[in-house]
Amino acid sequence: MTGKDAKELNVNCPCCKAQLIVDSATGGVIKFIAHKDDAPTLEQFMKADKTRSADLAAKFDAAKKEEDGRLDLLNKKFEWAKKNKDKLPEAPKPGIMWD
């Protein structure tokens, strides 16, 4: 705070390191200034880039496995519905009957 008569409070967020300017009368946030990290060094970038392709391949494999599981479940539901079509509830009748 800049003084007793200050109408604004400058607060630094301990989590995200952003700066918040808060109105002291209402307690509302007037302005949010996001914290900007320094650009990575070349060594940091090269280290992260070495594992990037492996990380992307792992994410792709996980997504493919999840999608295959969804397809298997859908096929099982379809087969069950074909076998048990007499146990299924009736289809809803249309809301408007056109004569």
What does this structure look like?
This protein has one helix at about 40-85; strands spanning about 10, 20-25, 30-35. By secondary structure, the chain is of the alpha+beta class. The protein has 2 domains: about 5-35, no CATH class; about 40-85. Strands 1-2-3 form a 3-stranded antiparallel sheet, with no helix packed on it. The longest helix is centred in the middle third of the chain and has 42 residues, at about 40-85. The radius of gyration is 29 Å and the shape is flat.
β-strand amount? 15-25%
Strand order, sheet with most strands: 1-2-3
Gyration radius (Cα, Å) is 29 Å
Cα distance spanning the termini: 75 Å
Count helical runs: 1
Shape: flat
- How many extended strands? 3
Given helix and strand content, the structural type is alpha+beta
Please summarize the sheet with the most strands: 3 strands, antiparallel
Spans with pLDDT under 50 lasting ≥5 residues? none
What would the average pLDDT be, to the nearest integer?
Answer: 86
Q: How helix-rich are the residues, as a percent range? A: 40-55%
Order of helices and strands: EEEH
Number of domains: 2
Write a short abstract of this structure:
The protein is an alpha+beta fold and 99 residues long. It is built from one helix and three strands; from the N terminus they run βββα.
Task: List its traits.
single chain, 99 residues, alpha+beta, 2 domains, 3-stranded antiparallel sheet, 15% strand, flat
Give the topology.
Elements: E1 8-12, E2 19-23, E3 29-33, H1 42-83
Antiparallel strand pairs: 1-2, 2-3
